[in-house]
Write a structure and sequence with these properties.
Blueprint lengths: L2 H8 L16 H10 L9 E2 L7 E2 L5 E2 L12 E3 L8 H10 L4 E4 L16 E3 L3 E8 L5 E8 L1 H16 L3 E4 L45 H18 L1
Parallel strand pairs: 5-9
Antiparallel strand pairs: 1-2, 2-3, 4-6, 7-8
Helix pairs in contact: 4-5
């Protein structure tokens, strides 16, 4: 279907759903978008059968994803005492600006951010710090077979709350800012997969690079266990 025809047809999709591709820059399209931004997001998103450049929601309506991202929308971030992220205000901002997509950014390290040498802390973390023994940051070592349920409860609750505002959520699984980058800070000394920081005898470092060795089966197995927990959490 030609793009213009597709968008024209989308303007007729005024039933419930997320933001429709409804003549996005026309007055009619803006009115429709305003009507739909308060609707509950429906999924799962799939490739639209008539135009593979776009998604379709759970009702088959075309969806255009656009949003605003910040690094603290899942875990609280900052120097001690860690400031609490204003999640309700963030949702209000998203909805008032007719945005329908966010990424929940995930951090694995306990401290250290790539943009500064300040001691930036992250909370909550995916794994429980049970000890025995102290990690390199002086706090109890991680137990990599015990997930921190508070972390996963937050993933679920924020995903559901965003859905009720008509906002689709991408839950980030892994990212490279939790290992060494060409930046002022090296987060590896506080990473739970650092062998000096967990009670499980697991060290995922590739040589002495402060980076994970993704080619190792045990590293992939550890990540797979975390991945399954995230999937179980949001399903």
């Amino acid at each position: 279907m030609h793009r213009r025809e597709f968008l024209a047809a989308a303007t007729q999709a005024t039933a419930c759903g997320a933001v429709a591709l409804s003549g996005l820059f026309s007055q009619t399209g803006r009115q429709l978008i305003a009507a739909l931004t308060s609707a509950r997001a429906t999924g799962p998103l799939r490739i639209h059968p008539q135009n593979p450049r776009y998604f379709a929601d759970g009702n088959g309506h075309p969806v255009y994803l656009t949003g605003a991202h910040t690094w603290a929308n899942l875990q609280d971030i900052g120097v001690a005492p860690i400031p609490k992220f204003d999640w309700p205000k963030y949702l209000d901002m998203m909805q008032s600006n007719r945005l329908n997509f966010m990424r929940l950014w995930q951090w694995l390290q306990a401290e250290g951010a790539p943009w500064t040498e300040d001691k930036i802390l992250f909370d909550p973390l995916p794994y429980l710090r049970t000890g025995p023994g102290s990690a390199l940051d002086g706090k109890p070592k991680f137990d990599l077979i015990k997930f921190n349920q508070a972390y996963f409860d937050r993933i679920r609750s924020r995903t559901l709350e965003a859905r009720e505002r008509g906002i689709y959520v991408a839950v980030q699984l892994f990212q490279e800012f939790s290992v060494k980058k060409d930046t002022p800070c090296d987060p590896w000394p506080s990473h739970p997969y650092n062998g000096k920081n967990n009670i499980n005898g697991f060290d995922g470092e590739k040589g002495k690079t402060s980076d994970l060795d993704h080619n190792r089966a045990d590293v992939r197995a550890m990540q797979e266990s975390y991945l399954h927990k995230v999937i179980d959490t949001v399903n």
